[in-house]
Specification:
The chain is of the alpha+beta class. It has one domain. It has three helices and two strands, in the order H-H-E-E-H. The protein has a two-stranded antiparallel ribbon. Strand 1 and strand 2 form a beta hairpin. The protein starts with a helix and ends in a 5-residue tail after the last helix.
């Protein structure tokens, strides 16, 4: 396998794992995929966040909201 194919396969595997973790009920699994600090950007700007206990609480709230509103895949 050439280097580009390997990188593509690794990237695909990462995002497949991320998708599975996003649907799981254990926010620690998803949080482990983030750096200790990370940047989020959007139309209104960007911010830096810490992957800490508050982040875990937020991930749990997002998961609960998504599940309550029918997210299954």
């Amino acid at each position: 396998m050439n280097t580009n194919s390997t990188r593509e396969a690794d990237l695909r595997a990462f995002f497949e794992q991320y998708a599975r973790a996003s649907l799981a009920t254990n926010p620690e699994e998803l949080a482990a995929m983030y750096a200790p600090s990370f940047i989020v950007g959007g139309p209104r700007g960007s911010m830096c966040f810490a992957s800490d206990a508050r982040f875990l609480d937020w991930l749990k709230q997002v998961s609960d909201f998504n599940r309550a509103h029918g997210m299954r895949s």
